[in-house]
Amino acid sequence: MTSISSVASSSATTSSSSSNASKATIANLEAQVAAKQAEVDAETDATKKTELETELKALQAKLEAAKQEAAAKPDQKQPQNDNEKSEPPRFSGESDNIGKGNFGEGTPFGQRFAYL
Q1: Contact residues for 86 (Cβ-Cβ < 8 A; gap 6+)
Q2: What is the pLDDT of residue 47?
Q3: Rounded mean pLDDT of 23-39?
Q4: Which of 97, 58, 75, 102 is CA-nearest to residue 11?
């Protein structure tokens, strides 16, 4: 039992650290975009300004890709919690059939089951 819980806690830690890493990456890219935007605004030479704008667009594309990747990845802790909450059924499902039968008028006698 202890090995199962240690595996679950290590996967939760991995998920948490990867989530923090993606947030850090997004924050880093946002800072780079802001710095590059400041450079573009401060630049007076048209040639250098177009080069900086190209670099800025590339950074913005990376930022959008990182945001989409973070949004596409569901938080790993939540599905794990859902799996922990939803326990497997204790019985084979036959208890749902109590009071029912699997036969009709045309079913041969040997293939009839009634659940009591």
Answers
A1: none
A2: 92
A3: 88
A4: 75
Task: Specify whether the CB–CB gap between 103 and 70 falls below 8 A.
Answer: no
Strands (E), the chain: none
Helix 2-42 and helix 77-85: axis angle, to 10°? 150
Torsion of CA 79, 84, 90, 96, to 10 degrees: -40
Both structure tokens of 35: 């710095």
Q: Band the pLDDT of 1: cuts 50, 70, 90.
A: very low
Name residues whose C-beta falls within 8 Å of residue 113's C-beta, 6 or more positions apart in sequence.
Answer: 101, 102, 103
| Distance separating alpha carbons of residues 92 and 7, to the nearest angstrom | 28
8 Å CB contact between 52 and 39: yes
φ, ψ (nearest 5 deg) of residue 114 = -125, 135
Q: What is the pTM of this model?
A: 0.49
| Whole-number average pLDDT of the chain | 72
